[in-house]
């Protein structure tokens, strides 16, 4: 049907756009405090970027990407996440040649063919951070603190930060072998996805949302017992820095995230009253991603925050702001001769930076006054044919009901002065 949008999409209507701007403005304010600069990447990329960057064994690549062949016979994918795109831009535009680290943020739509539900859409929006070239735990701590401060600045409470280390190419093969040994005997009882992951990426089995798989993997070996000294020191350093900053966290050995590029630090911030979609922020370190995309060995870390889920959380906690959509001045016209004169006033008010509007539907005086009330106009400027002929304007204060007839220039000065106050 032409009157229905595609499943999993949602119009952001004028009544709610103000809430989105509030979140976006808060994100930009926080990023400015932490010295992160905005980047805007295309909403589609070459499919190979996500195959190599995200990992071919992930649910995103296997099941959820919107991929098509363009007229040049190239495989193109709508971005399902933005980290790989930022890394591509980092390399293509030689941002690595600037002073380092590179600290970037983005706000925009992502696309995944997923089952729509509360807080989950096929076109959804993320606020994300990427920091490249710094490898110590301090940048990890900064990234996590930025996420926490952003959510706290919005007023959100009951948030829980979960941490884990998923190791590195040195220690992960040891853990992989131990995990496979533990899971092997019961493998046939796991879901088809987990059976497929066993040989390719067994850590993803710990992330399976199937309750039966969760029960079968209980008691599995923990990555913490297999970390190499470098990963162990990095994780300990991160925990010390977060504690020094009074950031509360819980360790979650089953937190592996859903992307293959993560190394060392993985974290998630949850707002548990949202239920199954409780994760409002997730991220981690991706030290091998730049090299995987064709660059030199460059460390990186980032996070993404789902804006739809943040809106849900704000609504649940009654934290959505009051959006001021009041109109300063509504210009009411009576008669055909008055319209050019009224339009001139409207334009002058807008040039002065005053929000103003008028009727464009040839309504009656009564209907125009009702519309002015609906727009919550502070003042009404009434112009009929007689007023236009005399170069005058009737200015009415909608709160007090007081009105006076003024010359055009004086009416403009008065309205400018009143709105300035």
From TrEMBL:
Gene Ontology molecular function, alphabetical: ATP binding; histidine-tRNA ligase activity
GO cellular component annotations of the record: cytoplasm
Pfam family, one: tRNA-synt_His
GO biological process: one example: histidyl-tRNA aminoacylation
Annotated localization: Cytoplasm
Residue span, Aminoacyl-transfer RNA synthetases class-II family profile domain: 1-340
Coiled-coil residue windows: none
EC number: 6.1.1.21
Annotated catalysed reactions: tRNA(His) + L-histidine + ATP = L-histidyl-tRNA(His) + AMP + diphosphate + H(+)
Top-level class of the enzyme under EC nomenclature: ligase
Complex and partners: Homodimer.
Family in the record: Belongs to the class-II aminoacyl-tRNA synthetase family.
HAMAP family per the UniProt record, alphabetical: His_tRNA_synth
Protein name (database record): histidine--tRNA ligase
Organism: bioreactor metagenome
């Amino acid at each position: 049907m032409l009157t229905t949008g595609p499943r999993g999409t949602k119009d952001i209507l004028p009544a709610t756009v103000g809430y989105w701007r509030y979140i976006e403005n808060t994100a930009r304010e926080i990023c400015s405090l932490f010295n992160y600069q905005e980047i805007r990447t295309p909403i589609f990329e070459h499919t190979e970027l996500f195959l190599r960057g995200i990992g071919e064994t992930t649910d995103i690549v296997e099941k959820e990407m919107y991929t098509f062949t363009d007229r040049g016979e190239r495989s193109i994918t709508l971005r399902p996440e933005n980290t790989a795109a930022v890394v591509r831009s980092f390399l293509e535009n030689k941002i690595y040649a600037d002073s380092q680290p590179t600290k970037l943020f983005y706000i925009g739509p992502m696309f995944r063919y997923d089952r729509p539900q509360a807080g989950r859409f096929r076109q959804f929006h993320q606020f994300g951070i990427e920091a490249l070239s710094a490898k110590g735990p301090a940048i990890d701590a900064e990234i996590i603190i930025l996420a926490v401060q952003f959510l706290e600045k919005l007023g959100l409470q009951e948030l829980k930060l979960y941490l884990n280390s998923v190791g590195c190419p040195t220690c992960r093969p040891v853990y992989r072998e131990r995990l496979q040994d533990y899971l092997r005997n019961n493998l046939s009882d796991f879901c088809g996805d987990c059976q497929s992951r066993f040989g390719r990426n067994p850590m993803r089995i710990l992330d399976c949302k199937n309750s039966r798989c969760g029960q079968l993997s209980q008691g599995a070996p923990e990555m913490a017992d297999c970390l190499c000294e470098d990963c162990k020191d990095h994780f300990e350093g991160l925990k010390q820095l977060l504690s020094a900053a009074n950031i509360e966290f819980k360790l979650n050995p089953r937190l592996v995230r859903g992307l293959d590029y993560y190394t060392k630090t993985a974290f998630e911030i949850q707002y548990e009253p949202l239920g199954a979609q409780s994760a409002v922020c997730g991220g981690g370190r991706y030290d091998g991603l730049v090299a995987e995309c064709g660059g030199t060995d460059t460390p990186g870390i980032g996070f993404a925050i789902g804006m739809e889920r943040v809106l849900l959380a704000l609504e649940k906690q009654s934290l959505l702001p009051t959006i001021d959509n009041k109109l300063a001045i509504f210009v009411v016209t009576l008669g055909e001769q008055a319209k050019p004169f009224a339009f001139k006033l409207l334009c002058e008010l807008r040039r002065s930076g005053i929000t103003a509007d008028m009727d464009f539907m040839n309504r009656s005086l009564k209907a125009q006054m009702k519309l002015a009330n609906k727009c919550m106009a502070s003042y009404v400027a009434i112009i009929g044919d007689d007023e236009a002929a005399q170069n005058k304007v009737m200015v009415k204060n909608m709160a007090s009901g007081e009105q006076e007839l003024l010359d055009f220039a004086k009416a403009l000065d008065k309205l400018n002065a009143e709105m300035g106050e």
